[in-house]
Every structure is written in C-alpha cells, then in structure tokens.
Records
---
Amino acid sequence: MENDELDIDLASLPKQKWVGDDHLLQFGGFWFVPQHINLIKKVINHFNPLPTDVILASSPKTGTTWLKSLLYSILNRSSKHKLAFKHPHELVPFLEGPVLMQSNELPFSTALSNTCRLFSTHISYQLLAKTLDSCECRIVYVTRNPKDTLVSLWHFMNKRRGHQPWTINEAVDAFCYGVTPYGPYYDHVIGYRALYLKRPKNVMFVTYEEMKEDPHGHVKKLGDFLGCPFDGEEEVDEIVKNCSFEVLSSHEVNKSEQSLIKNLFPYNSFFRKGITGDHENYLSNEVIQRIDTLTKHRFHSLGFMYGI
C-alpha cells in the first residue's frame, strides 16, 4: 500500500473509457471514478470498526437505499420518523462518501457511544479484507440479480447532471467487462459471499429478490442478527410499510432535485421503480443470454446458484 500520507498518483493507474468522455481508473483490481480513489485509500488506511458497528455493504444499484432505510429504522426505532424528511443517504453515511469528499472529515471518526454506529460502503471485500477480517462488527451485504442491477445502473447514470447519455448497449458491454464503478460486479459479490461463508455469525448475506418476496420475515431476521429483536409483529409491520418504495418515494425530500453532492445525482434519482425483473423491459433475448452465460460461469461454477 502506498505511503499513508501521500495521495495515489492517478496517472499511474490503468484507465478505461466508460460513459461519454469519462474514464474509470483501476485500483486494487476494481474500477472507480478518479475522485473516489484517494477517499477509498483513506478508508482502507484509517477505518477501524468498533465491535458494535454495523456496516451495510453493497455493489451500486443492488438495493442500498432500501436497506439503509430498513437498517436505520431497526437500529433507531425511536427516531425512525426521520425518514419522512431526511434522505436515507443522509441518515446512513457512506464511509467513502460525500462527507469525506466535501470536507475531508472522516465520518467514522465519531466519538464512542453506547449505541452502534451504522455505515454503508460500496468498497469491495477484497480491498477491505485486512480491516474486516480483524474486527467483530456486523456486516449486512445485499446483492441483486445482475440483469436488474445493470438496468438500474444504466438508468441511474443517465440521471447525472451535465453528462453525456449512456446507451444500453454501452452499459451492457461495460457491465460484462466489469468496467463499472466499484466493479466488476461479480467479483464484488463473490468477495462478500466468501466472507459470509467464512464468518456467518458476523455477516448476513441477503438478496434483493428475497427481501422483496418476504420483507416482513427479513426485517425480523435483521433485527435478530443486529442484536435488537422485535417483541411483536406490529413494529415489524410498521417498519416494512414505512420503508416501502411507495411510502419512501412519496416523501418530498425523496422527490427533490437536491443532491448530496452538488450538481451530481438528485435525491429523486434513487427512487425509480423498486421492482424485480425490470430488465425484461430493456434487454433483448440475446443480451439476456449473454449475461446469463457470464453468470453461470462466475456464480454457478462456484456453487452460488443465483442470478438466472
């Protein structure tokens, strides 16, 4: 790892064009927008999780916003009403996110408290292995069908302000080659799944599809996993309802054109449909076959029968 006090020389990193004239840079086997790389280095070098910390890990566009809402509500039951006027990404900071980008303030350097701290990250396990292998914090990892992840990412990137459009064919190629922010997607999922298989007491691995099929059951499981089980069904029902796509997307803050990072993604870009199987509306049979073949090669060959 480079000297802790020095920024990485971005010009020395592998570079790949992806959307319009924008490029991604490769660091540690994963692809990132250039302005994120030294933030990620800072997290790798300085984040020392407390045993009481909870980390939501995910690849982009796999259900992060929904899980932030659920985890915040489960861990902060007396203040879960804040979701009505605070965007989920404000309530649950990314380790490598806007706070660190805008102010150089480490969001994880807060003073010790009697309550657990809740963070989120898109950084791969492979880059955080040294940190996560040596701590007792709890990690929730969510993943999503690769085809729906791709389509959601394509829509999301086209909502960026002031950027050139990204065609679906360009998105498919980028996804299949692994050249997407925090990608390759398959390596990201495989890394955290390996951590889950190694440390199931510390890691809960869930899929977006399982969550959508039985949100009530999974909220109860999350409560148990996080050490704050529910006494009855009524509060579970309330959290499921208040964190539903229909309710969250109706709040004025989540319909807003404001953004966490000035002139980038508006708050409303994080709420589109919230459904499964939407890829069928955008991907041809040929493209679906191409991604399914890749999924069989990357997931099914390892015994992870998912994604098709």
---
Amino acid sequence: MSFIAIDLDGTLLNEQNEISEENIKAIQYAQDRGFEVVISTGRAYFDVQTICKRAGIVPLIIGTNGATIHSKDGKVLSSITISKVRVESILKWLDEQDYYYEVFTNKAIYTLKKRREHFYQEIQSLKETDLDTDRKEVVAAAERQFEQFGYVLVESYHDILKQEEEYFNILACSFDEKKLAEGWKQFNMIDELRVVSSADHNIEITNKRASKGNALEKLALMMNGSLEQSMAIGDSNNDLSMFEKVRHSVAMGNAKNDIKAVCTTTTLKNIDNGVAHAIYRYIENFVVHK
C-alpha cells in the first residue's frame, strides 16, 4: 500500500479556498487504483472534513501539523497535545507581545475577538497599498485564513484556558518579519515544542513529537503500508518533514525556491491544478516501475 499525502493551503486549494474539479477527479482516480490519499495540513480536522465533504472526497486526514490523525470515517487514530501549562505560558507571551493568534483544539479554533478585528483591519489596509506580487500573496493568504470553519471568538486568553479540551496547535501571525522571527526564536528554544511555518505571515507551534512527517510515518505503520513508493505534495516549511519520509517529494510551482530545492520534482502552481498534474505523473511512473 502506497500513500499520496497532500497539503491544503497553497497546494490542493485554489484561490477560492476550494478543491478544483480537476484535483477532485485526480484524487478519486488515485483512490480507485488502490492508493491511500492523505490530506496533511496545519488546519483543524473539523475544518478539513468540511472542505472534503463539500468536494465529495473521503481521505485520511493528518491535521494541525501532524498533531492529529483521523481515519476516513472520522475515528481519532492519534493525537499529540500541548500541555495546558505550556499553552498558558505561550499565550501569555503572545498576548504581552501583541500577536494575533489562534488556538486549535479538538473542538474549535479559539481566537480573541479584538485581536481578530485588528488583524482583519490590518489586512484591509495593506490591500489598499501598492504591494509587490509576493507581498500581495502573503496578505491574500492571511485573509483566506479567516474562511476556516470552527472559529470561537473570546475576550481573553483566559477564556481559552477555561476550556476542558485538548490543545493541538497555536498559530501566531504578524506582517512584521522581525516580530515573527522573535516568536520563532522564543519558542524554538523550548525543547518540548516544534515551530514551523505554513506562510510568510505566521509561525505554528505544536508538541515536539508532532509533525506531518511523523504522522505520515505513524499512519504507514498503522496500516501496514510503505512510504518507499509514496508521494508527498506541498509548498511550505511545514511540509518539509513529510518530504523527508517519502521517496517522491513534489513542490508546488508556487513554492519558494528553498522548498523546490529539497524536492525530487516540481509540479504546476495550485491555481493550475498542480496536484492533479503530480498525481497523474506519479501513478504513470509508479505503474511503469512497479
């Protein structure tokens, strides 16, 4: 059994935050031929499930940057949490440093109402300025983030800590590169945490043991599958761990050069159905070399 692991944002999703018909058909084509398709993303499971249901596909789901694994029928196969004590220290620091942040649990995506409004206004203000192409995409990615399903708005981070839920991932955002670097440094030095990024405006914090690559490896062991002939497709820093685990790593055409440099091949951009292109090419080569 081989796997096709696919990132969502900047990869499977287009600019409308949807999975195109071409990509849907390619996924179904792969599944019909016995390949296990895995959506592997920083998004929460319930958000991914909504997107997949809308598209009519039923994949395995690695969520919150590898902190969760769900079966096709929604069963929790694995979950790796951040302790409440550690979550509190993270949120206290982010709050004091005035970051916009989101906390992903097994039930919701919590964020502060006032911070969300401020960050949204910042996005709108930037859209009215004369930005270069790369900066425009960063702002657009930040705006698309607000379209996720499952947000719960609260007044303070103390309200988040009152929830008796499992904490999987904390996403912090800023358009200030220096500020983001400070956040990365602050949390990357803590041994029990892992810091990655899915876009140029954010950092994402999980338990050290959680990564897309580790989750994919765990899934292969659970299902008695193999990563030797498996493929992973992505575009960002948080995809690097799964690229390391598979034989066929594919960078999106819209990925940065440092991501393309570590992959075995590059496909078309997400807006040009790059996932479908990669799947068909992979299956054709796989069959030839089987």
---
Amino acid sequence: MAHDEKISELTGNDVHREPPASASAPAQVPDVATLRAMIHERQYAAGKALEQQLETDVLHAREVQEELLFEMIEANKDTPFGRDHGFADIKTVEDFKRAVPFTNYDDYAGYIYEVMEHGTRGVVTTEEIVHFNETSGTMGNPKGIPYTKRMAEILMGYSGAYTYFRSYVGAGEGLAGGRMLTLIESHYDTLKSGISFGSLSCKAIADARPYLAATTTSPDEAVFTKPGTDTRYLHARFAIEERDIRDISSVFITGVLDLMRYVEDNWELLVRDIEQGTIDASIQMPADVRAGLEARIEPNPERAAELRAIFERGFDEPITPAMWPNLLVVRSVAGGGFAPYTQRLRRFIGNDV
C-alpha cells in the first residue's frame, strides 16, 4: 500500500478529535499584561538555560553526541528494531555504522505503522510515542515521524523558548508586552491508536489554547479552523485592528509576506469591516463560525479611521511602523531558500524589525 493511502487509512476515521471547545474559554484568565509577563518570565528562563547548555555542549560536541548515541542504544537494545540491528553487540561508533547503515523511511515504515495503527509500545523506542509529525519527502507522500515526549520537549524548547530568548536579547524588554500575531494554525488528526498525527507546531499551539485569546490577535476560529474558513482574512482583520503588536510568529516567512500582500490588496474591505463591526458577505466561512464571530465583534470606527489614513498614503514606504509602531521581531524560518521572501517582506516591515 502506498504511503499516502496508508496514512489516509490510519487518519480517515471517526476518532478525529478537536481540542475541547471549553479550552478556549477558561473560567479565569489573567489580563494581557500579566499573562505576557508570566510567559516572558518562563520563556526567558528556559531559553537562557538552553543557551547555556548549548554553549557548554558545543565545546565538546563529539563527546556529547557519542554519549547520547550509546544512551539510546542501551535503552533500546531490547526493542524489535534494536534486536534486528544487534544493538546489544554495539560497543563503538564503528560498530554502529556497520549495524545500522544509511537508511530511508521505508526501512522504518513497518515498525512505525505498528505504532500508528495499534499504539504498540517499545517497537522503535522504549519511550512512549506521543505524536507523529506529518511531513513529506521528495515524492510528496506523507510520512509519520515518531516523537516521544522528550523529543517534543527538546524541539519545542529550541524553537520556542530558545528563539524567544535570542529575540529578547536582540529586541529588548519591550518584547514582553503587547500582543503577538501568530499565523500558526492547528490541523491534526488522531490515529486509530489514539496518538495525534500532524504538524508538531500545531500540536504545541493546541496545548496553549487557553491563553491564546488573551495574548495573540487571531481569534480561536482562525487557529483551530473548520473547513471552508477564510483564515487569512481573520488573521489580517484582527491583526490590523490591534495597534500594540510586538512580535509576529509564523512557521515560514512566506506566511507573513502573504498576509502583508493580502492587507495591501484588501485593506478597504478590512477597514470597512473593522469600522462597522461586520464580516463582509464575500468572506467564506461556515455559518456557525460567522455567527460566533459576529456575536463578539464590535464596531471600532476610531481604529478604522486611523488605518484608513495610513493605507491611503500608499504602500511605497514600509507600512508596519505606522500600523504597528511597537513591532520588534518576526520569528520564522527565514534563511536559506526563504531569504528572497525575507527581503520582499522588508518592503512592508522596513529594516528596523
């Protein structure tokens, strides 16, 4: 069976679960300033600790890597994968190279599908697998990369706390205030085994759902979306209505560039909706999503007038310094092949962010 067919079989079932609706509206949530201060304190401390550990580790990189390698070999020698590859007899790095040659996904597929379908523990690792990260290879077939709790914590620690700490070092204490614009959306399924399958960043943001409404600009309906919802409109509309945005977070920089282009092309519609407290009839979304949003939004003619004056001056000069004067940081994959898009984004955000 082809990979995409197998993944479809495993995820296309009635076990799909969305995070509970009640999670988006906890009984008591501190005000924005308090929440941001709490998040800052936690992220800063965790990020600083990670940097200190990294600075220590890179001075002895080979020793650190070998220690980790043999720790994993010892812990997993009695798993089916470990037995099949003679982990118990591996004593040196050269032994490992001979026992575990270069491989591809197909070499692990049988072990992985066993966990995906049945939730069997101890097949590829003795640690409990808590998530399968959906990714695609050169042929575009989706693959499930197993993540244990420790793996997820390490990855999200570096992509979350560490990057926040480095951003704070560069941008200063102003980063701890205001709101954040996040373009990450949560789309993941639950496999027959009960393990989640999808982007790891989506899983992580779902865990933070109770606090998103108080710290970010996008409404719950834009992050935890229903099919047929124009999320780009929702991200843009609620972002430009907020004046005090300090940082923007997106998986890839193209997402931020796309949003800025959308604002440039549709600012009149966006401003009119902000002014009137409406959602234009041309914007696609399920009826219940529209009803829920319209019940909460209110006319904001003051901000609409401010935005209209800004946009009417045109987009020849960077627009965000006027729209979001406190914007300090954009956190995203923005180097390598994405570098050209980063430069194009400068037309909107200028060179000071």
